Amino acid sequence: MAGRVKYFILMTAVAFVLILMKGGKKIDSVISIEQCTFPYFGLLLLMAVVFYAFFVMIRRHYIQENDYTQEDIEVINRNARSGLLTGLIGGLIGIGGGMILTAEWLQLGLHP
């Protein structure tokens, strides 16, 4: 349980700092980055890489902590990929991820 809280707090702090650096519609960037510029999209890419690294660390931690079978690990990876794809598609077309993720889970045979 302590590992989960540690990762959650660390991810939240990193997200907060990166969002403040990036800025948005209602708040200006603390490092004066304008929207839709190369540094702005560079920070977006950095956020994606950082959160993917968090995902890898957390997944490795849980797999080592529990005795998962190879089938369980494949299910975890499949769900993670579907979540990533859902987030990308939802972000591109501007809708909530639940609309896509529910359909994806039903297709995979999972109960949403």
What does this structure look like?
- The protein is mainly α.
- It has two domains: 1-66; 68-112.
- It has helices at residues 2-22, 38-65, 70-93, 97-108.
- The longest helix has 28 residues, at 38-65.
- The radius of gyration is 17 Å and the shape is globular.
- The two termini are 24 Å apart.
- The mean pLDDT is 78.
Summarize the structure.
It contains 4 helices and no strands. With 112 residues, it is mainly alpha-helical.
Unreliable stretches covering 5 or more consecutive residues: none
The secondary-structure class comes to mainly alpha
- Straight-line N-to-C gap: 24 Å
User: Strand tally, please?
Assistant: 0
As for the number of domains, it is: 2
Average of the residue pLDDT scores: 78
Percent of residues in helices comes to: over 70%
What does the radius of gyration come to?
17 Å
Number of helices: 4
The profile of the biggest β sheet is: none
Q: What string gives the helices and strands in order?
A: HHHH
Percent of residues in β-strands: under 5%
Global morphology: globular
